[in-house]
Design brief:
11 strands
């Protein structure tokens, strides 16, 4: 079993920055993909950014150039640096780990962008 714990959400003004972090524990196999999804009220959960074990990244078009994903394979952690935040980035952000056809999710952390 895998457990994911997120941290770093909060309230920030438009144009500000936040950094989300996620730590995975449990039985974790290598060659996994870790990343972030988000879900705003009344909307479906959507991909924000992913990073493979070997470092290949995928970003949603809406966050390209503003968000940067990184990971530490030795520590089983993944982070999301979010810059130039917009009100439409407000959502609950979920950490995800995909390994051996299994998806694991964190509890989510709220990000609110508002003046």
């Amino acid at each position: 079993q895998v457990q994911l714990v997120e941290s770093g959400g909060g309230l920030v003004q438009p144009g500000g920055s936040l950094r989300l972090s996620c730590a995975a524990s449990g039985t974790i196999f290598s060659l996994n993909t870790m990343g972030w999804y988000r879900q705003a009220p009344g909307k479906q959960r959507e991909l924000v950014a992913l990073m493979s074990w070997l470092g290949t990244t995928t970003y949603a078009e809406s966050v390209k150039g503003r968000f940067t994903i990184s990971r530490d394979n030795a520590k089983n952690t993944v982070s999301l640096q979010m810059n130039s935040l917009k009100p439409e980035d407000s959502a609950v952000y979920y950490c995800n780990l995909y390994s051996r056809n299994q998806n694991y999710w964190g509890q989510g952390t709220q990000v609110t962008v508002s003046s």
